[in-house]
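chain below, 225 aa
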Amino acid sequence: MNLTNLTLRQKETLFRQLRISITHHSNAMEGTTLSFGETKELLEKGITAGGKPLSEQLVILGFAKAYDVVVRESSNPSFEMSSSFIKDLHYIMFEDALRLSSSYIEKPIGAYRIDERYIKGVDIKLSPPTRIAQDIDNLLYRISNRMTLKEIAQFHIDFERIHPFADGNGRIGRLLMAFQYIQNGFVPPLILNDNRMDYLDALGEVELLTQFLELGSKESLRLIR
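prediction:
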């Protein structure tokens, strides 16, 4: 499942198709109500979904913008992930929704949370607000630009256990995972909303998550076959 095995045309098609699929499924996992078709119309034609909250649609557009940044920056093998990069992705995802529908957005955006949080459905103790910045820095210190699939899975687990933001932690974590996959020459995984519970269960064990993400990469490849 290496990107080097794909032609330039296949990679271009893969990233274009994943822009729609990852955006839809990653947001659907967090409760947004747009169908795949409505997400596709919004991203490709700018057609909003009638009867669906504007705030949701603005976040979906923001997620797609953040995905574009991930694809662009991950193509640079020397680009190093930083806390500023992570915060910028979070800001990009929510900035338009905050400006036009601020009551829907949990604040702050582009900055770490200032209150205690938990992951619904997962029995994991998250970093307290006073530890978030240090925990993120420690996590970033342990990684490099050359990572194995298991190391990427462990990073994702650790990031979700820190849960640095008031909202959007799952989505940002999955975008960072896509970044690491692409930068290391792997096909980024597509995690389907239908597999949400299996994904949450896998967050408790690195071997299980690694295997789950391998299936996600196969799901991505189906988009170009």
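The chain is about 60% helix and 0% strand. Residues 3-224 form a domain with the Fic-like fold fold (CATH 1.10.3290.10).
thats it, cya
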